[in-house]
Amino acid sequence: MALITSPPSNPKAHQFSPPHCATRRPGQAELVPDITSAALVDAAESKPEPEAAKFKRILLSDVVVKSQKRVFFGRKWNAYDLATASVILAMHCLCLFAPFQFNWRALLVAVALYVVTGLFGITLSFHRNLSHRSFKVPKWLEYFFAYCGTQALQGSPITWVSTHRHHHQFVDSERDPHSPTAGFWFSHIGWLFDTTSINERCGGPNNVGDLKKQPFYRFLEKTYVIHPIALGVLLYGLGGFPFLVWGMGVRVVWVYHITWLINSACHLWGKQPWKTGDLSRNNGWVALLSFGEGWHNNHHAFEYSARHGLEWWELDMTWYVVKLLQAIRLATDVKVPTEVQKKRMAI
C-alpha cells in the first residue's frame, strides 16, 4: 500500500569557487587543483536541512502534513463561506444550552433525527445511492431519502455528491477537497470554509449531470436553506426550546462530526486490508457511529459496493437497511464485490 511518508531530502546544488591560479615557472609541473577535495569540504560546511524537517507527522499516524493551508486568515472570504461558518458556529452555540434544556422527549427526538438524517439521509442516500449508485430504489423513495439528507444541514444533494465524487477522483492529492496531507483540522472541518479553493482545484460541480437534469434536485439546490429552517420552526412548535436545542443543535453537530471523521480519521488511523493506493483506513469506532461508513478502506477498494462492512463482524447498519429494502423488493441492482474482485485487491 502506497502511503505518504516523509519526503526525501533534496539538497540544493552547491556552487564552487574557481581554483586559484598559480604562476608556473619553467620546468615546474603544472599545478592541478583538487576539485574533489574542494567539493567535499564545501559540502561538509553547508549541509542543507532536510526538507522532511519542514513537515510534521500527524499524531499516532504515518501521514505527513505536506502543505499547511491558510483557511481562516490571510485570504478573502466569499459570502458562501461566511454563511457556512455562521451556520456551523450557530449550531455549536446552540449545543451549549443542551445541559439546561434536557428532557427525555427532546433526547428521543434527537436520536430519531440522527437516524433519519444520518442513516437514511447521508449514508444511504447522499453517499451510497446518489454518489456511487450502488443500488436503485423507486424515484419516490430516492427523493424521500435525499430530502432526509437535506435536513442534515450538510448542503444540497448536488453540492454534497459533487464534493464526494471529487474526493474519489483526486483522493489524498493536492486536488482532494479535504486531503489529510493538509492537516487533520483541514480535512475535518477547515476545507468547508474555502469553496473558492475547492472550485479552483476541482472545477466546481461539473460531475453531477445525472442530478442536475432532475427538477427535484435542482429545486433542493435553490431552496436548500428553507428546509432546515422549516424543521427548526416545527420542532419549536412541538416541544419548545428543548426540542430546538436537541433536535437541531445537538443532533446536527453530532452528525456533522461523525461525517467529518470519515474525511479525517478514516484517512489517518486504522487498518488497510486492500491495496487502494491511497490513505483510506478501516476504523471500527467510526463505523459504529456512522452506520458502517467507517469501513473506509473497504469503500475505497470497492467504491460501487452497497456493502462497506465486508466481513461478518464489520457492523454496517446502512447495508442492513439496503438488504431490508432488497428483501421487500424496493432496492434493485444492488452491487457488491465478487470474490475475484476481492482477490485482485487484497494485499
TrEMBL record:
What gene name is given for the protein in this entry? LOC115988909
Q: Which cofactor does it need?
A: Fe(2+)
Domain notes for this protein: The histidine box domains are involved in binding the catalytic metal ions.
Subcellular location, in the record's words? Membrane
Q: What is this protein called?
A: Fatty acid desaturase domain-containing protein
Give the top-rank taxon of the lineage listed in the UniProt record for this protein.
Answer: Eukaryota
The family note in this entry says: Belongs to the fatty acid desaturase type 1 family.
The residues that cross the membrane are 79-100, 106-126, 224-246
What pathway, per the record? Lipid metabolism
